[in-house]
What does this fold into?
Amino acid sequence: MDGEQVPLLHTSSGGGNEAKHTQRTIYVLSVGFLVVFLAYNSLQNYVTSLLPGNLGSTSLAVLYISVTVTCFVAPKVVASLGEKWTMVLGAACYLVYMISTIWAIKEVVLAAAVVIGFGASVLWIAMGSYVTRASHPARLGHNNSIFWLIFQLSNVLGNLGAYYLFDNAGSKNLFIGFSGACALGTIVLCFVTPVRKLTFQYSQDNEAEGENQEEEATHGACAWLNSMWVDIKETVRVLCTNEMLALAYIFAFVGLELAFWAGEFTQLLEPRSIGIVLTFAGVGEFVGSIICTRLTDKIGYYLMFVLIIFFGGALGICVILKDYPHLVTATWQDAPVLAFVAAFCFGLSDSIVNTQCYSLLGKLSTGKVMVRTFTVFNIHQNIGSAVGFYYSQPLPLHGPNGTLSQIWVLLFFLLVGTILFIRVDIKYGQPRVKARKALQEEKQQVASRTFVQSEE
It folds into this structure.
């Protein structure tokens, strides 16, 4: 990733107020995502069980295929609309899919799955770019962890609400409630402060983007399409770098593990108990975010070993629930107690791996290259999710014909991905952070000397 721009520190006297403003808008962003995804994450956990036939799993596979394809144009959308309005557009696409599940007409649901796929690709790339550009490099891990800390409450609140709503109002009203919550979250995202008004930290990038947008406006649609084609080629170039190829395993694991515990694990449970069990996944994600908030910038990749322990434990419990149900005697709310433990471990693992991936991507790049690295992450992640939701049909864990194939695939990608993740962090991530900090300190010293000389 040669030629990337190094972020410039804002050295004006208003830096303290700017830091507070940055923190406030990170909270607004987090709350917006919290409300949108307390609806979507809970809905995703139910559609594989409640939609007729295999429509739930099929629509989720289509969704993630759509994300993978549209990821290539997402950087151009982010550059054209800006992070804020791209996130609003993406959230609105989620709303389209949720509304389609109310009546569950197959053709409509599948078409809406394509729409939400586009929305997901631009939403998450814009989010990663926004948090990184708004954060001082020394606070990047902290701000990512703050986002995930608040965001992960979505699984607690969403699944708990879904449990009581489904029990008392039925599936149709459940999907209506999800749609209403998503609409509210979309409105909240409208109050996020645009990056260009928030900080001068990436002023060179902002100026360059402004010049590019003016040029495209002057030359019309042809220039816009040509620029998009250039972005696609540059994204492919980033995808083929040594860092991204090495990280492909852990990125794919993020998608595979999500598909497993949102689609396959829930089918080991009674539909009535899905919400209450996955509430504990939300608790695990919340606890994981607290851990990451305190430790990501201090111990870095060592958290990946915690991921292996807890995710491996969750998979072991799934094997017990499938092959040794006679050993599971303790139950609560019509579900095995071990299922609650597994859900907690899945949630904790998901929080750790997402926080670590976003934090490492922030270390590796800045500017336009940064947006493309988040694009590559989304491509691999969503290929993993699409494959996970698809192969769960011919190779299910649940049922009389269930196999352990998914367990072995997950373990392979987890172990190989963790080894390569640590290697990339040591070889590329940490040296680049040190280089940026050294350059920033040098710029601050020059600015201080200039200020002192002007005073004299």
